[in-house]
Please model this.
Amino acid sequence: MSNVNDHIAQVTEQNIENLLCTEEDRRRKTPRIYRMVSAITRNCGTVGFLVGNAMFFAAWIAVNELITEFDPFPYTLLLLGVSLEAIFLSILILISQNLDAEESERRHHLDLQMNLLTEREITALMRLVVNMAERSGLDAELTKEARSFAHETDPAAVLSQIVKAERRHRHLGS
Model:
């Protein structure tokens, strides 16, 4: 049993579907090489990959010690392979992290734009509420807080306030 009313559930479902379709469309337009990098890093970051590597290394050592010495201790060929694997995996992971960072930045911008839009909408509603309260003769003291919020907020000024507070906090913590 859901506590969300049907209209909110419908709007939320539509919003989620729109975002998923947009992300899916963006993924389809992503160059194939980047999709391959993402697939490789997704598969390499699993327990199965860890177990597979461990089994491969154990088999390599076992074959060299028990059957035939094609790569005698200290297993130079194995070390070369492991080093190359580490180099390529590191590069693939860095590429994948860059892709994830770009996606995160897009979502951050979406959140910021939605928040700025919401702030403007609420400000317009506050102005309307204050106007209605004044027309209906409500005591000004009752609308004092609403009036104080009935103006647009300057995001740059808020950011400046945050930066100053962070500096003050770091200075006091030092």
Observations:
- The two ends are 51 Å apart (CA to CA).
- Helices lie at 6-29, 32-44, 47-67, 76-135, 144-148, 155-173.
- The chain has one domain: 11-44+75-173.
- The chain is about 80% helix and 0% strand.
